TrEMBL record:
PANTHER family: XYLOGLUCAN ENDOTRANSGLUCOSYLASE/HYDROLASE PROTEIN 8-RELATED. The lineage of its organism: Eukaryota, Viridiplantae, Streptophyta, Embryophyta, Tracheophyta. Pfam families: XET_C (PF06955). GO terms for molecular function: carbohydrate binding; hydrolase activity, hydrolyzing O-glycosyl compounds; xyloglucan:xyloglucosyl transferase activity. One of its GO terms (cellular component) is apoplast. This is Concanavalin A-like lectin/glucanase superfamily. Residues 56-104 form the Xyloglucan endo-transglycosylase C-terminal domain. It comes from Artemisia annua. The keyword rRNA-binding does not apply. InterPro entries: Beta-glucanase/XTH, ConA-like_dom_sf, XET_C. Keywords: Lectin. GO terms for biological process: glucan metabolic process.
């Protein structure tokens, strides 16, 4: 398994069309992972990837605790959205020719 992060100039949409200024004097921008441990389903080739959805101890993400946010967690997420989100991809219909991105119509919690 590998992780490939990327940075790109998203000035026209991620900065609310220039309302949030990018401090380019801080470049080059560097990111790193500290104590990152990927815990994922190991897929062994031609066998169906649906094996990763089978509830088991090895597939910890299938546990009921990960299926839905609690009311408290939903409140925390709302607080973060209300206080820190500067761009919402799901409300940017201009970017998607007057439509919402298809994945945005999925349940949020």
């Amino acid at each position: 398994m590998r992780i490939y992060p990327s940075l790109w100039n998203a000035y026209n949409w991620a900065t609310r069309i220039g309302l949030v200024k990018i401090d380019w004097t801080a470049a080059p921008f560097v990111a790193y992972y500290h104590r990152f441990r990927a815990r994922a389903c190991k897929w062994n080739g031609p066998v169906s990837i649906s094996q990763c959805a089978i509830p088991s101890k090895a597939n910890w993400w299938t546990s009921p605790v990960y299926k839905q946010l609690t009311m408290s967690q939903q409140g925390q997420l709302k607080w973060v959205h209300d206080n820190h989100m500067i761009y919402n991809y799901c409300t940017d219909v201009k970017r998607f020719k007057g439509q919402m991105a298809p994945e945005c119509s999925k349940p949020q919690y």
